[in-house]
Amino acid sequence: MADILASDVNAIRQKIADTLGTGSGSYGYGQTIYSSSVSSGQRIEKSQWDAIRYDIVNVFIHQTGNTPSVVNVVSGDVIRDDPGYALHNYNYYADIGQNNRFDVATGQFSLLGDGDVPRLTGIDKSTSSTWSNSAEATLTVTFSTSEEARHFFNAGGKIRIETNLTGGSSSQAGAWTNLLNTAGDQDFKGDIVVDNGFYTLTNTYKTYYSRAASTPYSSNTYQLKAKCNVADNSAGTATTIDIKVELTDAYVDPGAPAPGDLVDGTLAITVQELLPGGVLQPTGDPFTITPPASYSMSAISLS
């Protein structure tokens, strides 16, 4: 049995504090931290172990919706540096919490759309004009500060886009309806995977979702692309995100009956915000994330 060092306890506590608290870069939910560092030579009280445990519990409830099997230290317990005791148990959960930091459980967020809040009112766009080559629109999402943007995406916040075509009668319209129905809604999120999330953005567009239609319309593609207002967002310094919705129709339908190669019907682009929330234990204080300050969507341009 080895002695427990203050540095060991502080290392565990720092992992969970980086996930739940202010953090930096792709770490940090911006929530209240209950635990505090301990000093070498001091006796670690039950209340201090409890504070670390509550920080772990709050991370796991947010990520999974469930309370983890965290060891509950009882007054008078001898805490050993062995598996099964608090030190190893807390470190195990602190590591999981960091690795799964972008997860958010059902019940720990609100899904908001056009008309639900002022910032999203009027954001959805549609057109019933015909087109044959392309359809495009750009969504701009602006945060008041880069820290608010970090906390939004780190805590599982997402910008959800769904594009649909309804009511068309042409063969091309049928192909596009099937393609967009298959694509469904797609989330832009906080991720460090290449070209797939907030921390991979630059100030030039990168494709984060792409899907082609079925044969013979496989040259028709639906793409979502994103960029931000900084050259390299790996540290999470961006405050503005532009998401471009692109429908490229490269297939020419030969000899099709009226309306020929044109895509008819109503094309609609819908935006939703997945806003993290919940309740912190043991106080019952709200898990609060500041949403984007504003959204704007261009009209759908057709050619």
Percent of residues in beta strands: 15-25%
Order of helices and strands: HHHEEEHEHEEEEEEE
Residues in helices, as a percent range: 10-25%
- Structural class of the secondary elements? alpha+beta
Q: Based on CA inertia axes, which overall geometry fits? A: elongated
Low-confidence stretches: none
Mean pLDDT: 93
Q: Please outline the major beta sheet.
A: 6 strands, antiparallel
Count of folded domains: 2
Number of strands: 11
Distance linking N and C termini: 74 Å
Describe this structure in words.
The protein contains 5 helices and 11 strands, in the order H-H-H-E-E-E-H-E-H-E-E-E-E-E-E-E. The chain folds into 2 domains: 6-99, no CATH class; 109-302, no CATH class. The mean pLDDT is 93. The chain is an alpha+beta fold and 303 residues long.
Explain briefly what this protein structure is.
By secondary structure, this protein is an alpha+beta fold. It has five helices and eleven strands.
Summarize this structure as a short list of keywords or feature phrases:
single chain, 303 residues, alpha+beta, 2 domains, six-stranded antiparallel sheet, five-stranded antiparallel sheet
